């Protein structure tokens, strides 16, 4: 084990036994993007962790569940349950136009005693859709989520839906962003 900048690295996991120290250093430098390079920064007396600039495309979930805007809420709920997700991107003519979350269904259907089989996606979806591109810095996505008070951002490459990034994706990879979500407004 080696202690580096406040983290313990197990060299056996990073470097094969047959490599010399020079080879190992060259490998680590060449593959720097493969490993998270945490740095400790001092900020107002508190130590926080920051990481090299990551882009949304590096942390997004590439598999996104989509449904047409005329789909009944019962079908959307069933698909969310089967897929183990908390949101579905709603499309019109194959293009993303909105999003429905499990919270939307609870507040806009269940709490209002509406019949789920009679409610269509377009009636309860959040629209217009707030999106980011895959090359958007994670820090910027974090700011958008906090500013808009939302938890998920669909990722569009041009007009094509390529993924979704959530608060969980960001906080898992960049814990320093937690202050943006839980700081007093």
Detailed description of the structure:
The protein is an alpha+beta fold and 185 residues long. Helix content is 35%, strand content 25%. It is globular and about 45 Å long.
Keywords:
185 residues, alpha+beta, CBS-domain, three-stranded mixed beta sheet, globular
What's the arrangement of secondary structure elements?
Layout: E1 2-4, E2 7-9, H1 11-14, H2 21-30, E3 38-43, E4 46-51, H3 56-59, E5 66-68, H4 73-83, E6 87-92, E7 95-101, H5 102-110, H6 121-124, H7 138-148, E8 152-157, E9 160-166, H8 167-173, H9 178-182
Parallel strand pairs: 5-6
Antiparallel strand pairs: 1-2, 3-4, 6-7, 8-9
CATH superfamily of the largest domain: CBS-domain
Which class of the largest domain in CATH terms?
A: Alpha Beta
Strand content: 25-35%
The total count of helices amounts to: 9
Low-confidence stretches: 1-20, 22-51
Main sheet properties: 3 strands, mixed
Look up the CATH topology of the largest domain: CBS-domain
Helix fraction by DSSP (H/I, runs of at least 4): 25-40%
Cα Rg: 21 Å
Brief digest:
The chain is of the alpha+beta class and 185 residues long.
């Amino acid at each position: 084990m080696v202690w580096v900048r406040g983290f313990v690295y197990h060299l056996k996991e990073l470097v094969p036994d047959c490599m010399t120290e020079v080879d190992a250093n060259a490998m680590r430098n060449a593959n720097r993007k493969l490993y998270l390079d945490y740095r400790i920064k001092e900020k107002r007396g508190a130590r926080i962790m920051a990481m090299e600039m990551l882009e949304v495309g590096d942390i997004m979930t590439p598999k996104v569940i989509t449904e047409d805007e005329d789909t009944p809420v019962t079908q959307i709920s069933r698909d969310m349950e089967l897929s183990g997700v908390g949101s579905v991107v709603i499309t019109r003519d194959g293009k993303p136009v909105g999003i429905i979350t499990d919270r939307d269904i609870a507040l806009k259907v269940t709490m209002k005693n509406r019949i789920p089989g009679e409610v269509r996606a377009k009636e309860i979806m959040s629209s217009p859709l707030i999106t980011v591109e895959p090359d958007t810095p994670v820090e910027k996505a974090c700011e958008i989520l906090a500013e808009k008070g939302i938890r998920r951002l669909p990722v569009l490459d041009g007009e094509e839906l390529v993924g979704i990034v959530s608060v969980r994706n960001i906080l898992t990879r960049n814990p320093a962003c937690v202050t943006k979500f839980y700081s007093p407004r």
